[in-house]
Amino acid sequence: MGITQGMGARVQRVEDERYLTGRTAFIDGMALPRMQSVAFVRAEVAHARLLGVDAEAAIACPGVSRVMTGAEANALCRPIRADRGGPSGKRRRYAPTDYPVMAGDRIRYVGEIVAAVVADDRYLAEDAAETMEIAVEPLPAVLDVEQALAPGAPLVHEELDDNRHHYTRLENGEVSAAFSGAHRVVRSSLRTNRLCASPMETRAVLAHPDADGRLVVHTSSQMPHMVRTKLADLLGLPERQIRVVAPDVGGGFGLKCHIFPEELMVAALALQLRRPVKWIEARRENYMAGFHARQERIEFALALGEDGAIDAIDAAFHADGGAYTSFPFTPTAEPTMAASTCTGPYRVRKLRTEAVTAYTNKSTLSVCRGVGLPIVGYALEHSIDRAADALGLDPAELRRRNLLRGEDFPYGTPNFTMYDSGSPLESLEQALALMDYEKLRAEQAQALADGRYLGIGIASMIETTTYGQDLLAPFGKSDNVALHESARLRIEPDGGITLAVGTHSHGQAHATTFAQIVAGVLGCDVADIRFVQGDTDSTPYGSGTWGSRSAVAGGGAVLKAAQRIRGQAVQVAAHLLQVPAAEVEVADDGRFVRKGSKDPGLTRAEVARAALYETNLPLGLDAGLETTASVTPRSPYTIATHIAVVEVDPATGRVDVLKYGVSEDCGPMINPMVVEGQIAGGVVQGIGAALLEQHIYDDSGQLATASMADYRLPTAPFVPRIAMAHMETPSPHSESGIKGMGEGGAVGPVGAVPNAVSDALKPLIGWQPVTELPITPERVHDMLRQHRRGGE
Ligand code: MCN
Q1: Comparing C-alpha atoms, which of 207, 226, 209, 205 is closest to residue 536?
Q2: pLDDT tens digits, residue range 313-348?
């Protein structure tokens, strides 16, 4: 089969069979002799002085082997800390805090760990945890970014002067003049919902000392090498004494690319007790103490010329950042990314942005699929549709007048980003054709005549992917994330191939797509390749999977390793065939043949065995066929257009998504089927973010949405079939021209669905903005009610 399974082929996902037949290695299914379970005792107040923890009754409970409280835990393990270089000043400040593994003398959010109880099983541990007496002196809680930033607000961290975690400001061009001279200004105050990743598998850790006394930590992580480095650093152990394994991981969506107090605590307890210790997170804990994302207040303004050209953008993103600085990604990532991408795919030269993160007494806010881009998708696309309405233009027409075109690329944005290639305008036209926009408008008019309210929403977007050197180097030295990615490739003596990578696939199908890259270079089948990931003992150091980087960074390293090993194999084959290496080529079926010769040449196995066993190979050649390669990537930008068609029922406020279409250009696709799967999964998440998902804290800082009954996720009947069309503009920023695309699906709906809702309600109340997400039936009712009130 060989080359037919290379890049571009719709190869069936090789990893699915084991998931579908239950032959998986999730941590919950693992058990070791003498294993203990942990239950964490968590704070029940949002902000308090912690006066004391009475563990006497818990220690006496049946099966309990250990109870640990803050003083002891914090002496064993240094706090998590995310420092970053660079001076503070008028335009920039960053004030990180220590994130202790357990609350010391202060509690800062409901769900913070106050103690750990270790027992023979989780039931016994939970029963004992119930008996713990926690004495607190409540303090006023800060529960909102505006409250946090108001002068005189109670301090979440006493050592800081105020609750500002961070701010950055940028001004490029004469923005004030552009606004005062504008033909039209469109200004909106918007709010995005506090939501979370909600992976199917919650967080999970199983740690134990091995026979040599090394610490082995199984953890449900997207970044196993980073976790090992931080465990060593914070527990004070030599890194070589730690092995981290991220086995099967049931989804991460950005949550699992952090180091967590729970990982450190379970590891510390296993070392102390000298036995395996396990923790499986309950959904309630995940919602209270797994990080949240996205809650921001946004001020967004466009200055437009008479022809509808956007002259300037003025945008401020204020994030409700929660209690602590997470590592390696921090609560500052969402607003910073929003500010640095807020011109989207449009031609805008003048820009003013402000990004602020405030400490609040809530669970820490960090990254989730899309990081800042869904916020921009919402605010910018909302503003485009609002402007189109104000100017009396069709939303597609206003986009046509402002979108970047192919000839504009490479394009430097006013926020100092260099877009590489593609055409947002062509993407719009492709999406309009895919969905038959004219026909949709006719159907909408017919529906209205029948008394139904249909709306069409467009979102044009550009997705930052890979987060390469160009984007991250300007932040200076980084101890937080490694930029490179690596791959190790070995051709075994029987011709089979072992590929080990530093990334971590937990749904993205790397076992298939990375194998396709190798298949394309070596002319083998995907089935010939054993894929290894997630184990720091057997994979090369990599940064892991986040930021839609694996195809470009990891895939780039795989390609480099495959090309290098092919070169090595050609040297050996040349010796065996007794011709110069330049005369040898790899045929589509993987045989090493002399160019132009009908001779069958050599199989991969023959060459691989010779590389190990042949006695008279030239002395300069490495023995065996094995290599490790790494790539430090640049950032390619993926272009997409999403179109949503919704129906709104004004009586109930219910919004149904009837049709959905995506045009996507992520460069040459390694596997179009995998790309389409990623888009579909993302769109479902994006529809959830637009219509359903929301964490709500009450006035005392209690999380009111701590179960799946209250935190609503989209299910299959909620989502229509998704139409897709592709373009494949190569990127000059990557090997093979590939661009990443793992997050974009989740970005578009957050712009397209609200616009479709405003469009649906237009015949009833004129074009009214959706100013807050998610668009619950209550919010639809509010829009209708406010309009009625306004008209009175
Ligand atoms: N791909 C391709 N051709 C391209 C680009 C990508 O065939 N031109 C393939 C890649 O080879 C890979 C997949 O598409 O198999 C996604 O590639 P990429 O865009 O590099 O994204 P990553 O693999 O780095 O995945 C990370 C991304 C992120 S950041 C989040 S969050 C996310 C997501 O992927 N979390 C997910 N998708 C997820 N899907 C599942 N099922 N579960 C998660 O937790």
Answers
A1: 226
A2: 999 999 999 999 999 999 999 999 999 999 999 999
Give the Å distance between the CA of 757 and the centre of ligand 1.
Answer: 29
Report residue 4's pLDDT band, with 50, 70 and 90 as the boundaries. confident
**Is there an atom of ligand 1 within 6 Å of 741 CB?**
yes
Q: Which residues pair with 40 in a beta bridge?
A: 116
Q: So what's the pLDDT on residue 477?
A: 62
Under 8 Å between Cβ of 747 and 373: yes
Going from the Cα of 549 to the center of ligand 1, the distance in angstroms, rounded, reads 8
pLDDT digits (tens, 9 = 90+) for 635-650: 999 999 999 999 999 9
Phi-psi region of 117 (alpha: psi -120 to 50; beta: other; left: phi over 0): beta
Q: pLDDT tens across 655-670, in order?
A: 999 999 999 999 999 9
Judge contact between 567 and 639, C-beta under 8 A.
no
Quick one: how many helices (H) and strands (E) in the chain? 21, 30
Least confident of 211-215, 478-482, 605-609: 478-482
Q: Supply 177's token pair.
A: 């003049």
443 φ, ψ (degrees, to nearest 5): -65, -35
How far is the centre of ligand 1, averaged over its atoms, from the C-alpha of 508 (Å)? 5
pLDDT digits (tens, 9 = 90+) for 99-115: 999 999 999 999 999 99
Helix (H, G, I), strand (E, B) or coil at 117: strand
Helix boundaries (H) for 545-657: 555-577, 604-613
How far, in Å, from the CA of 546 to the mean position of ligand 1? 8
| List of long-range contacts for 9-13, beta carbons under 8 Å, 24+ apart | 9/516, 9/671, 10/671, 10/672, 10/673, 11/512, 11/516, 11/526, 11/671, 11/673, 12/512, 12/673, 13/509, 13/511, 13/512, 13/673, 13/674, 13/677
Q: Which two tokens stand for residue 328?
A: 């390696």
C-beta of 550 in contact with ligand 1 (< 6 A): yes
Residue nearest to atom 3 of ligand 1 (CA): 669
- Measured from the Cβ of residue 456, the count of other Cβ atoms closer than 10 Å reads 23
Q: Which residues contact 87 (CB under 8 A, 6 or more apart)?
A: none
* 241 — pLDDT class (breaks 50, 70, 90): very high
Report CA(670)–ligand 1 centroid distance (Å).
11
Pocket of ligand 1 contains residue 7 by CB under 6 Å: no
Distance, CA 552 to ligand 1 centroid (Å)? 10
Determine the atom of ligand 1 nearest the C-alpha atom of 509: 15
pTM flag (> 0.85): yes
Confidence bin at 1 (pLDDT 50/70/90): very low
Q: How far is the CA of 548 from the centre of ligand 1 (A)?
A: 6
Is the distance from the beta carbon of residue 667 to the nearest atom of ligand 1 less than 6 Å? yes
User: What is the number of residues in the chain?
Assistant: 792
Give, using CA atoms, the residue closest to atom 41 of ligand 1.
507
Closest C-alpha to ligand 1, atom 40: 507
Q: Is the Cβ atom of 369 under 6 angstroms away from ligand 1?
A: yes
Phi-psi region of 253 (alpha: psi -120 to 50; beta: other; left: phi over 0): left
Our answer on whether the CB atom of 253 is closer than 6 Å to any ligand 1 atom is: yes
Q: Is the CB of 252 under 6 A from ligand 1?
A: yes
From 90-104, 242-256, 368-382, the region with the lowest mean pLDDT: 90-104
Q: What SS3 class is residue 44?
A: coil
CA dist., res. 243 & res. 217, Å (int) = 6
Is any atom of ligand 1 closer than 6 Å to the C-beta of 556? no
738 lines ligand 1 (CB under 6 A): yes
Could you tell me the two tokens for 703? Answer: 């999380």
Q: What is the mean pLDDT of the chain?
A: 96
State in Å: Cα 253 to ligand 1 middle. Answer: 10
526 lines ligand 1 (CB under 6 A): no
Q: How many CB atoms lie within 10 A of CB 201?
A: 20
